[in-house]
Amino acid sequence: MSALVPRPRLGLAPGAVHVPGWLTPDQQRALVTACRSWAAGPVPIRRTRLPRGGLMSVQTVCLGWHWLPYRYSRTADDVNGARVAPFPEWLADLGRRALADAYEDESAGDGYAPDTALINFYDGQAKLGMHQDKDERSGAPVVSLSVGDTCVFRFGNTETRGRPYQDVELASGDLFVFGGPSRFAYHAVPKVYPGTGDPATGLASGRLNVTLRVTGLADPADRPGLTGPD
C-alpha cells in the first residue's frame, strides 16, 4: 500500500488491535536510542538458548525481569548473572496510552502496570515461530511496538498453532495490542522485509520489537519467603 494512503486500524479478534503509525518519528528515534542503551547492559543483548540446545534467530534483551523459555528471573543466569536493567516508568506510561488508544477507551489503561519488556531485534533472516506468551502469571494485555523494517505478523487462535490465523504487516511505528479473549493467542513472525525501514529512526537496518507485559510475579527480595518462578 502506498505510504500516501493511510493504513486503517484493524481489529483482528476480540481484544486484538493493530494501530498503524502509532509512534511518532520522534518517539521511534527515542525508542531506538533507549534500546541501544539497554542492549549494552548490564545484561547485554543475546540470542536465547532453547531447552533443546538451539539458539533463537532473534536477539533479545529484557527489562525488569529476565526471560528464559518457560520462566522469568531477576538475574540473567544464562548470560552473566547480572540483574537486568529496571523497567522505566515512562515506558509503563507509554503502555497505558497504547491501551487507551488501541481500545478507544480512555480508561482502558487504568491499572495497567507492566513490569517487564522483551526487546527483540530481527535482522533480515530472523524469524519467530508460532508460540503463546504464557510464561506470565497475569492475563493483562501485551503491548507490542515496532520500529524499523516491516515484518509479517501472524496472529492465530488460542487453541492451536495451526489455522485459523491472519497475517498482517507491521511497519515502523505500528502498535499491536492483544488482551482479553486474545491474550493467549498463538502468534509468529515468519518474515522480515529487509531495507523497508527508515534510517531516520536511527536504525539503519533490521527490526526492533518492544513488548510490554505484566508478569504477575513477586520479587523474593521484596517479599521474603517467596521464591521466583520455577
Summary keywords:
alpha+beta, Jelly Rolls, four-stranded antiparallel β-sheet, seven-stranded antiparallel β-sheet, globular, disordered C terminus, 28% strand, 230 residues
The biggest sheet, with number of strands, parallel, antiparallel or mixed sense and barrel status, is:
7 strands, antiparallel
Write down the Rg: 17 Å
Please report which band the strand proportion falls in: under 5%, 5-15%, 15-25%, 25-35%, 35-45% or over 45%.
25-35%
What structural category characterises the helix and strand content?
A: alpha+beta
Unreliable stretches: 222-230
Secondary-structure arrangement, i.e. CATH architecture? Sandwich
Report the count of strand segments. Answer: 13
Tally the helices. 2
CATH class: Mainly Beta
Task: Look at the structure and name the CATH superfamily.
Answer: Alpha-ketoglutarate-dependent dioxygenase AlkB-like
The percent of residues in helical segments reads 10-25%
How many angstroms does the end-to-end distance come to?
A: 46 Å
Query: Widest sheet: strand order?
Result: 1-2-11-8-13-6-3
Give the rounded overall mean pLDDT.
93
Instruction: Return the string of H and E elements.
Output: EEHEEEHEEEEEEEE
Shape call:
globular
- Count of separate structural domains: 1
- What is the CATH topology classification name? Jelly Rolls
How would the blueprint of this fold be written?
Blueprint: E1 10-13, E2 16-19, H1 25-39, E3 59-63, E4 66-68, E5 71-73, H2 89-102, E6 116-122, E7 128-131, E8 142-148, E9 151-155, E10 166-170, E11 175-178, E12 187-192, E13 207-213
Antiparallel strand pairs: 1-2, 2-11, 3-6, 4-5, 6-13, 7-12, 8-11, 8-13, 9-10, 9-12
